[in-house]
Crp/Fnr family transcriptional regulator
Amino acid sequence: MNTRTEVRTDNLLLNALSPDDLGLLSEKMERVSLLRDDIIVGANAAIDHVYFPDDGLASISTVTSIGRQTEVAIFGRDGVSATCLILDVFSSPHETRVQMAGMSAHRIETEHYLRAIERSPTLRSALLHYVQTLLVQAEHNAATNAHQRIEVRLARWLLMAHDRIDGDELRLTHEFMAKMVSAERSGVTIALHVLEGGRMIKSERGRVIMIDRPMLERLAGECYGLPEAEYRKLIGPLGRGHCGDG
């Protein structure tokens, strides 16, 4: 019998794996700390490591030739970086960047990660389920940003970020939130004042404190909940909202 290296993790995707599949990964994993603005997947760059966050938040963004960023999706302890690898694609046109300081993750070299996927059809299947949830999130992001006013977009994004952390404090700059909801920084500042005036949040320099989550959910409406329900259907528990999965 093979001896499996035990891994203690808060990563929901890792914890949803079978013991054997988790063992294939944990044999080669190490725990690392990440800082805000660390790039864990570079656009069109070689991918040396794959990261399973235990906390914090990372954003997957498109980056234009003049450096303008637009968010495609976010993940934290619900997911894994470099999903292109699961599809046998070895680089991505998107950049993945850490957006919260103090993020920790379990890291594995790409070579070992791909070998584990090759050895286990059930591991590949589980990771493909995660790819599906990320695609649903990205599609929902695009629809929301195209059709909803900024305070609704911001409410939805804050709920998504809140789902992926402990506590009620989000350490985020106005500039970053603007990129995440496809808006100007001044527009985000106004939207934060609207949410604060409604006593849904408290906004301070570099941080947002969640005050009334149910009210934020009502404001977000149908814009929030579908990707989260898809994750719960395919992988396991995610979030702490009041929305049903029906």
User: Anything to note?
Assistant: The chain has two domains: 12-122, 141-234. The radius of gyration is 18 Å.
